[in-house]
Amino acid sequence: MSMPDDATAPAGTVAIRIDVPQQLRTLAHVTGEVVVEVAAPVTAGAVIDALEVAHPTLAGTIRDRDTGRRRAMIRIYAGGEDYSDAWTDTELPGSVLEGREPLRLVGAIAGG
Q1: If DSSP states are collapsed to H, E and C, what string results for 7-29?
Q2: Is 31 helix (H, G, I), strand (E, B) or coil?
């Protein structure tokens, strides 16, 4: 669900761009960046809430459905900083709030 360039956010919300890993884009049936509307305060947790409402098939993929904890294999970056450990209570940087860059969800790679 990409937002056209001329679209505006509803009053009291901010349009947040999200760079979603390919596997999750496939699951949500979207291409490219996803845009969601988020009310202040805009934290990564609030963005994930909005993303799961807009794309219910993603519920449980980024965070555990029962505990609400971020899944260890998903990292969250904004403004060049890792928000993975402060994702529920730290407001996102201006570069993300102003749409200059997306919130990035990155799937970690593991193996041996």
Answers
A1: CCCCCCEEEEEEECCHHHHHHHC
A2: coil
